[in-house]
């Protein structure tokens, strides 16, 4: 089954990540903090999945007990930190300048992702509730023209 997996260029490699040159065409628009967060978030998630970085949105960093000198344990922590840094950078680079400044201080991709979710999903659901309430409270009045 393993030998059935091939990358995009069919050169026999089992590495299935999309090469950076191909994934650049998938970059999405800059999020400006206004409407459309859910769509932007979904597209950003799909992009991160395509380059195999979505795990940094949900995983906590690996921990190594104090005083560990195991080269592999320390190396895995460094690798994870580098991947998380790149993932955070990709998300930040899809925010407009003023949003970038607000969220640049996030410690990890996961905290950045959760902060964006908490801020903009709440805003969007509030807007939808307002629109629904306005629609439900609509009343026809004989004295008012329809086109107004």
Q: Explain this structure to me?
A:
The chain has 5 helices and no strands. By secondary structure, it is mainly α. The protein has a domain of 93 residues. Helix 3 packs parallel to helix 5. The relative contact order is 0.11. This is At2g04460.
Largest sheet: none
Unreliable sequence segments: 1-16
Radius of gyration: 22 Å
Question: Total helix count?
Answer: 5
- Rough outline: elongated
Please state roughly what percent of the residues sit in beta strands, choosing from under 5%, 5-15%, 15-25%, 25-35%, 35-45% or over 45%: under 5%
Number of strands: 0
Distance between the termini: 65 Å
Percent of residues in helices comes to 40-55%
Category by helix and strand content: mainly alpha
Mean pLDDT across residues: 75
What is the string of SSEs from the N terminus onward? HHHHH
Features:
disordered N terminus; 148 residues; At2g04460; 5 helices; mainly alpha; single chain
Put the structure in a nutshell.
It is built from five helices and no strands. The protein has a domain at 25-59 and 68-125. α3 (71-92) runs parallel beside α5 (109-136).
Topology (elements, then pairings):
Elements: H1 20-23, H2 37-50, H3 71-92, H4 97-103, H5 109-136
Helix pairs in contact: 3-5
């Amino acid at each position: 089954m393993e030998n059935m997996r091939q990358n995009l260029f069919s050169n026999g490699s089992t590495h299935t990540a999309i090469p950076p040159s191909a994934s650049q065409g998938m970059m999405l628009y800059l999020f400006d903090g206004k409407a459309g967060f859910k769509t932007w978030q979904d597209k950003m998630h799909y992009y991160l999945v395509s380059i195999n970085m979505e795990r940094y949105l949900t995983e906590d960093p690996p921990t190594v007990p104090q005083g560990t000198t195991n080269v592999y344990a320390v190396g895995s922590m460094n690798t994870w930190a580098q991947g998380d840094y790149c993932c955070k950078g990709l998300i930040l680079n899809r925010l407009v300048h003023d949003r970038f400044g607000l969220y640049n201080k996030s410690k990890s991709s996961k905290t950045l992702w959760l902060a964006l979710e908490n801020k903009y999903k709440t805003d969007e659901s509030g807007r939808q509730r307002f629109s629904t309430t306005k629609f439900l409270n609509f009343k026809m009045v004989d004295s008012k023209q329809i086109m107004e």
